[in-house]
Amino acid sequence: MTDLGLMDHFTSVTSATLPGANLHTWRDKVPAVAASSPYLMHQILAVAAFHLACVGPLGSPSAQAHTQQQQRQEKLSLALQHQHHAIRGVQAEISHVTPANCDALFAASSLLFIGAFAASGPTLHSPLRQLEVDDILEVFTLIRGVSSVLASARENVRHGLLKDFMKCNPYLGGNELLTLLQDNISRIQGGLDQHDVSSEVKSIIGEAVLGFRNSIERASSITPELNVAVSWPMILRDNFMALLVVREPASLVVLAHYCTVIHAAGSQFWFMREWGRHLIAAILRSLPPNWHDEIQWPVSYVKPGLASQNEHLAMASDG
């Protein structure tokens, strides 16, 4: 597909599926900024290609399915190429955020969040490929890398062409999942006492849980689960990431609770579709059996067949 075709798809279809700003901003203003920003243009085209790959029809006849899978892989490859160029462009300017480039950097960084989840998402890859914990670590690394851009550009963006990105209503509570999540993450520390966990690891876990709670409290009222899914990785520290790399059980317990928000966000946004279910399956493969009780609630939430919604509520209230 040509770049013109990808841009047409972005403005006519993909722009209406994106969070964070209104349709006018995504469809008209962001492409206008991209006209003078090659890296933003690349990321727009990347997201359009990811979207085309995700929403492409699936056929039942084997020959047709094979052709469609091949087309999907071609779009995925194209998306990854554009995203690679976009990342290089952002990296070249990330240390020099100015009023002149802040809109482009902010929009590109926002689209990179979407591209990061789409690139490794289970819907774009062969059913034979299992999602692994390393896949979410790659997403977290990219999110943490561009979070500084968002922070640096935020004030200039607030008064510029893309100011609609700054218009969000604060989360005032009432979201059932986030209420349950708040209750359950507060119990993680107590669960560690049942296992041989060092004081250093307990401290790291406590810090990650506190960041989780803060992310929930700062979420917007429009897409609170998505906000938590993106904002929590931004504030993760290197020591917690290091625990995830070695599959330290307590860190996987925290990550399992995170699966609930990406599972909920995946029901609304194509780029997170199936992430929660596949990631928690990867966690179950890595987590020692004697730790499985610590993730009973997130497993039951992400895999509703294991427990009814009433059981979710009962587990939350019983403690």
UniProtKB/TrEMBL annotation:
The molecular function terms of the Gene Ontology recorded here are:
DNA-binding transcription activator activity, RNA polymerase II-specific
Q: Which residues cross the membrane?
A: none
Question: What keywords sit in the KW lines?
Answer: Nucleus
**Keyword Cell inner membrane in annotation:** no
Q: Tell me which domain of life the UniProt entry assigns to the organism this sequence originates from.
A: Eukaryota
Keyword Nucleus attached:
yes
What's the protein here called?
Answer: C6 zinc finger protein
Q: Which organism is it from?
A: Colletotrichum nymphaeae SA-01
